[in-house]
Amino acid sequence: MAPRIPGGFRAAAVLVKPPLLAVTRRVWSGAEHLPTDRGFIAVSNHASYADPFTFAHFLYDHGFAPHFLAKASLFDIPVAGRALQGLDQVPVHRGSARARDAVDAAVTLLRRGDSIAVFPEGTLTRDPELWPMVARTGAARMALENDVPVIPVAQWGAHELLPPYSKKVNLFPRKTVTVMAGPPVDLEEFRGRDLDIQVLRSATDRIMATLTSMLEEIRGEKAPAKPWDSRREGGGR
C-alpha cells in the first residue's frame, strides 16, 4: 500500500482539483508502475509552469502525496510559503551552503516510503519544439545513493493550458493532458559504483532518454538526435 495521503493534501486537493477538472481532459496510463511498497523518485519533463499541477494531479489521484523540490524563494511568500511547508514540500537553496538541506529532506521522505517528484531539467526546456533537454544530475545521484527506483512520468498538453514562459492561461476549449508513467529506469549498472561525474551523467542521460522515448510515443513524433544543451546552444529563448 502507498503511504496514506495526509489531510493537508486532501484539503489542498479540494481547492486545486475542481479547476483542473474543468479545464482539462485527462489521458492517464501506467499507474501500475508506481511502487506501493517503497519510496521512489518520479521524474518528468518540463515544458510549462502548469506541469507541476498536472504531475501532482496524476500522482495524487493514484494514491500518492506529491512532494516537490521547489525554489526556496517560494517558501518566503506569505500564506503560500506556510502551505508549502505544511505539505512537506522541499525548499532548494541553489548555490548556497544550504543546498544539501534539500537532499537530506528528500531522503527523509524517501526512507519513510513517500515519493519525490522531480523535474530533472531544473527549469522549463529551452528546446524550441519542447523536447526534454540535457538535465541536471541530482535525481540520479539521489536514486543511486539511496537505492530507490526512478519512475519516468512523461506528460504532454499542459503547455497548451499555459504556454512556456507565459502568464496568460488559455482555459477554453478544454485541453487534453496526457500523462504516462513507465517502468523504473534501468540503472543497475550504475549502482555500487563511485558516483563520479561520468557515472552520474550517464545515469541522468538514460533517465532523460527514457522520458524522451515515452514522449515520442505520446506525441507521435521523433525527437532530435541530440537533446538541447543550454551550454552548447545558449540558454535563452
Automatic annotation (TrEMBL):
Organism in which the protein naturally occurs: Demequina activiva
BP-aspect Gene Ontology terms: phosphatidic acid biosynthetic process
Keyword Disulfide bond annotated: no
GO cellular component, one term: plasma membrane
Listed name of the protein: 1-acyl-sn-glycerol-3-phosphate acyltransferase
Superkingdom of the organism of origin: Bacteria
Listed Pfam families: Acyltransferase (PF01553)
All copies of domain Phospholipid/glycerol acyltransferase, residue ranges: 40-158
PANTHER family assigned: 1-ACYL-SN-GLYCEROL-3-PHOSPHATE ACYLTRANSFERASE, POSSIBLE ACYLTRANSFERASE
Keywords: Acyltransferase, Transferase
Gene Ontology molecular-function annotations: 1-acylglycerol-3-phosphate O-acyltransferase activity
Signal peptide span: none
